[in-house]
Each structure stands twice: as C-alpha cells, then as structure tokens.
Amino acid sequence: MTKKKVLVAMSGGVDSSVSAALLVEQGFEVIGVTMQLWDYSKNEQSCDPNKKFDTCCSLDDVADARMVAHRLQIPFYVFDYQDSFKENVVDYFVDEYIKGRTPNPCVACNTFLKFDLLLERAQRLGCDFVATGHYAQIDYCQDTQMYILRKGVDAQKDQSYFLYSLTQERLSKTLFPLGHMTKPEVRVLAEKYGLVNAQKKESMEICFIPNHDYAKFITNTEKKQNIIAGFLVHEDGTELGKHDGIHNFTVGQRKGLGVATGLPIYVTRIDPVTGTVYVGEEKHLYRSGFSFQKFHLVKGKNDSHLAENEKQYDVKIRYRSKPYAGILKCTHETTAFFFNEPQKSVTPGQVAVLYKGDEVIGGGFINEIFS
After folding, report:
1. Residue 130 dihedral angles phi and psi, to the nearest 5°
2. Residue 106 is among the residues annotated as catalytic for this protein
3. Which CATH number applies to 228-280: 3.90.1150.10, 2.60.40.10, 2.30.30.280, 3.40.140.10?
C-alpha cells in the first residue's frame, strides 16, 4: 500500500515539529518545509542578538526546523515567499492602519501563504495533504458530505479563529495533528521524540514588527504624504489636541493618547476622511453590532439557509476575546451581526468569527459599526 504524502509547514516551533513527528509515527511520507517570509537583514534590531524579538520565522527558527527534520529523517526544504508575504501581509497591514482600520496579519498569512501558496506547492510535489501545528480540528460528516472545522481541545491554545476562511476543498487536503491535544501534552511528546525545541518559548510578536511598535514601523515604511494627521476630539465635541497620524490609534486604545482628562478615556472611533480620532469614556465604546466585509462560510453555498433566516450564533470579534451571543442577519445587500447585549471596542478591520458550539461557521472583516 502506497503511503500518503504530506507537506508539513515547519516554523521551527515545538507545535509544527511535533506535528511532523506524529505524522511520521502514523506512517505518512512526510516532507518538511519552512517558508522564508521576511528578510531580517533589513531590520537591524531584529538581527541584533542582544535585542532579538520573539517571532515565528527568524533565521534561528529555520535552523531549528532543519535540525528537527534531520532528527526525524525527513526531507526538508526552505521556500522563498518573501514577495508574496510583503504583498499579501505586510502591505495589507500598513494599508489598513493608514485607513484607520486595525488589521490581523496572522489571518492574512494563513489565508494567502499557508493554505494557498503552500497548498499549491504541495500539489506540485505530489503530496496528498498539507499539515500545520494549528490547534484546531477537522471532522467529516457522512450525512452532509461536508467538512467541519472545530475548535482545538485546548481552549487556551485554540487557533480556529485564524482559519475561518478555509474552504471545503482546502479542508479536504489539510491535517491538524494537534487539534485533540493540549500544549503540555505536546511538550511531553517533543521530549519523547528528542526534539531540540521541546522547551522553546512561544512566538508572541508579529514577525515583522519588533517590540510591538507597529506605529513606528508604519511611519518608517509608508510615504509621508499618505500619513493622515488630524485632531483628537471628545465624543462631546471638545477638541483636545492634534495627532501625527491615525495609524497611531486603534479603537479601545487608552494609553499613548497624549491628552489628559479627569476620567480615563479611550479611542472610540476613527474618521479617515477628516483624520479625526474620537475619544471618550468607557460608556462610549459600546456598540450594538457591525456589518461584515468579505464574509465567508466554511460550508460555502450549501449553508444557504443563513441567507434565508436570522440565526443565533456566538461571535469572537478578536482572537483573545470571549464569544458574544447574537443574531446573524443576511440580505442580498449586506451580512450583519447584532449582539444580544451591546459590546465594547468593536474594531473596523479586525476579523469576526462565528461559532455554533465548537464549530466554526464562518467569518469576515468587521466593516461598518452600528451604534
């Protein structure tokens, strides 16, 4: 019997490494690959060993992935996707902030790189599947003949939020070996397999943004004439001062506003046309709902009942937020979600993902905010 062949995306971290090891153990023909996404030689700070920031795709990570592949005795390749990464992730990231929106680069990376370009490469190499270290699960329903995307068992590590844009075709060719495991269990297995990165710490920062300073990155990257400066204005109409660019702000932000009032104030909304950044007390952050942009259903058009009825779902409006209950309303013109109770800091540009229990229904980008 011919072994099924799988291309494993190996970031150099413990999750993708254990995924590769499990698949080898399960009898797959495994090929390891690291995607070279960012040229660190262009960022002096990221190349300084005394100032190294925590990312998922540094040169050290490539070396770790190579050593794991050697340990597992599997082929290993490094593919250069820097141009695609810049176009689909970095440029999108900068452009959204310039427009006064708050992007999610990890969603873009998963959509365009890991489950688009990498899947194409896997098919050219004759692979049956692509596998990653995501904490999520894929089931197949015989009755409906549809693939179902579910949360990972480890609630603290669940990454199904980032995968809402997967299609039925992509789900049919994707494996998530860690979906039924917890992080501590993964580390135990890494030790068992003798992997060099068994105790490697988590990747926390955006890989191309050192020290979380996205505003500085955008200022240094974008042309000065594209920066939109303006005024800070309280929701009551009081002008509080000037600012150097709307890209320095995001809805819900409290620190770094550069103004002092008697009560704590937050960014409540951003007007990219006038360059106005509105601020107010916490009560001004609450919203009733929002419309979707580029709405996607995991089950595709076969979930057409969503367009015919108002359905109750839970929604996550950012990766680390808890799910909020509400109603999805679909018309020919728009798809919108209304919370059962108003929620705060609903942010244009962020991704909102719908759930029914542990099943991912779909999602899209938050567009218009309803007061």
Report:
1. -115, 140
2. no
3. 2.30.30.280
